[in-house]
Amino acid sequence: MIKLGSMIAAAAFFGAAGCASTAQSPAAQPPAPAAPAAAASTPAATADIVDTAVAAGQFKTLVAAVQAAGLVETLKGAGPFTVFAPTDAAFAALPAGTVETLLKPENKGQLAAILTYHVLPGKVPASAVAGKTLEPATVQGKTVKVVGSGGGVMVNDAKVVSADIMTSNGVIHVIDKVILPPM
């Protein structure tokens, strides 16, 4: 289970690329200090999705799964990606033996399909879904239902428990369940 969690974490970190832009002008000297202050409040923005997931410590199974599926280089790529990253606890809640089975080399394609179902192309912050119901296509090809309401954000039947972890190549939203693509 730990290997799959680590892979999933890596997949989750395919994620979103930072899209901050700053206008440069001679009169913009006061805003320049404000930009570093904002960057300091989100230190993960300098690391990519995979490295951010590894550093977080709660995505060991996801990171292992990403490695087994051969997706590390993709998730370390330019992106941007949005990753819905299940925690180790989310993987542990799967039926006994599921993670171990998916991590077998003969199941690499199925594992990659599940992991890429957790990834959207582009950077989608939580604020973009507030008060909306969307059905965006995942990198895997199928759509997910994203509902932003006063109670938070849901992705299919998973709750976003921590949103907007910015990375150098996207954004990670931590979810409490592993979501599975429709068959």
Protein traits:
FAS1 domain; 7 strands; 8 helices; 183 residues
Give a written overview of the molecule.
It is a single chain. By secondary structure, the protein is an alpha+beta fold. The chain has a single domain (2-175), classed as FAS1 domain. Helices cover 34% and strands 19% of the residues. The chain has 8 helices and 7 strands, in the order αααααβαααββββββ. The protein has helices at residues 2-12, 31-41, 49-56, 60-68, 72-75, 88-92, 98-102, 108-116, and strands at residues 81-86, 119-121, 133-134, 146-149, 152-155, 158-167, 170-175. The longest helix is centred in the N-terminal third of the chain and has 11 residues, at 2-12. The protein is globular, with a radius of gyration of 17 Å.
Short description:
The chain has 183 residues and is of the alpha+beta class.
Layout of helices and strands, plus pairs?
Layout lengths: L1 H11 L18 H11 L7 H8 L3 H9 L3 H4 L5 E6 L1 H5 L5 H5 L5 H9 L2 E3 L11 E2 L11 E4 L2 E4 L2 E10 L2 E6 L8
Parallel strand pairs: 1-7
Antiparallel strand pairs: 1-2, 3-4, 4-5, 5-6, 6-7
Helix pairs in contact: 1-3, 1-4, 4-8
